[in-house]
Design a protein that fits this description.
Oligomer: single chain
Order of helices and strands: EHEHHHHEEEHEHHHHHHHHHH
Strand content: 5-15%
Radius of gyration: 33 Å
Number of helices: 16
InterPro entries: RNaseH-like_sf
């Protein structure tokens, strides 16, 4: 931030700058006379933009925070006197967040839950300090904004993730804040045994002991789609997933191959997109990987054509020619691609790399 300067200083101009002044008056004054000159608005806007971009660069913030910083700056500038006296250290900010902002938000949410029907969203995750945390969100219709809102209710730390412990923590939170169980309409959870077990799951315990009127919404659709997708793809022995992983590893672990593919992309007028690795427990990950492969489908034949034997190259050369024709590649571009294919063929690869290309 020390390198970002704003044009907030005036400039000094010589007294004889103005032609209307006589030489005698100029001699009576000093050589340099400070003249007040306003900085143009466009320059002030550019300086403000540079200041915000400097903060983003210095603190490694995502560019999506740029409009947020602009809106915050505009809101703070409305009360300049308060802004000049504003001090917010790290410890003070943490204290204000926990016992000020968070407490106020929670009180407003609890006040609404006392009189309004609501639903809960429960999910378990692991925090940065390896603690098991149950996040509880409340969804209800807010008369103040005239729409359905989803607000954070509480985060429960549990040592052992069991239906008994989670049910105990939720019950104690409801009782300590005097939240009526009658206002609870439904609970959205994943379909695991702890959450939705028919005998001792959390939903079953709450329905049997606290809220017999609880609706059965049959878990969230995301986990149902994941289970259905996993079952549907099981006969295919993960052929597509393994293909995407092999392509991802071939390009990730070789800078030469990646650079050559980028060169081929520029010759084919195709935007290079890095392949996406497939995560087995995320069903949407396979969709993302397949979409990236479809975008690069014309590039991949060049990658593996270079690894074929001479006899196999004669068989698949028609595919390369069809890509040339479809992309209208001239003789110069074909010669450059041919040189890249020679480099790919002569590159030494590991045994795992050979296995991925042969199998």
């Amino acid at each position: 931030m020390d390198m970002v300067f704003t044009k907030n200083a005036n400039y000094s101009l010589p007294s004889n700058f103005f032609p209307s002044r006589s030489s005698s008056s100029a001699a009576a004054t000093t050589d340099l006379t400070p003249v007040q000159r306003n900085v143009p608005l466009c320059d002030r806007i550019s300086n403000a933009e540079a200041l915000i971009l400097g903060v983003i660069a210095e603190h490694n913030l995502p560019f999506s925070t740029a409009p947020v910083l602009v809106n915050v700056s505009k809101a703070l500038a409305e009360d300049k006197k308060a802004l000049n006296h504003l001090l917010l250290s790290r410890n003070y900010a943490s204290y204000k967040m926990k016992f000020g902002v968070a407490k106020t938000f929670l009180q407003n949410t609890l006040k609404n839950l006392l009189t309004i029907k609501f639903s809960l969203n429960l999910d378990e995750a692991t925090s940065n300090n390896n603690m098991r945390v149950i996040s509880v969100l409340a969804s209800y219709f807010s008369p103040s904004v005239n729409r359905v809102v989803v607000e954070h209710l509480v985060s429960l730390n549990v040592v052992t993730v069991s239906s008994e412990n989670i049910f105990k923590e939720i019950s104690e939170f409801f009782e300590s804040n005097k939240i009526p169980w009658e206002n609870l309409v439904s609970i959205l959870m994943d379909s695991c045994r702890v959450m939705r077990g028919t005998k001792s799951g959390i939903e079953t315990r709450i329905r049997n002991e606290k809220a017999p009127h609880l609706l059965d919404i049959d878990g969230d659709s995301c986990h149902h789609i994941h289970n259905a997708t996993k079952k549907f793809c099981s006969p295919f022995d993960c052929l597509l997933e393994n293909l995407m992983r092999d392509i991802f590893n071939d390009i990730k672990w070789s800078a030469d191959i990646r650079n050559w593919l980028i060169d081929i992309c520029s010759l084919l007028n195709v935007k290079y997109v890095s392949p996406v690795n497939v995560i087995s427990h995320r069903w949407l990950s396979c969709c993302d990987g397949a979409l990236s492969l479809l975008h690069m489908i014309e590039l991949l034949p060049f990658l593996y054509y270079a690894s074929l034997s001479n006899s196999d190259k004669t068989v698949y050369f028609s595919i390369i020619c069809s890509i040339y024709k479809q992309r209208s590649i001239d003789s110069g571009g074909r010669a450059k691609i041919k040189e890249i294919l020679k480099k790919l063929s002569s590159k030494n690869i590991t045994e795992d790399g050979k296995r991925r290309k042969i199998e």
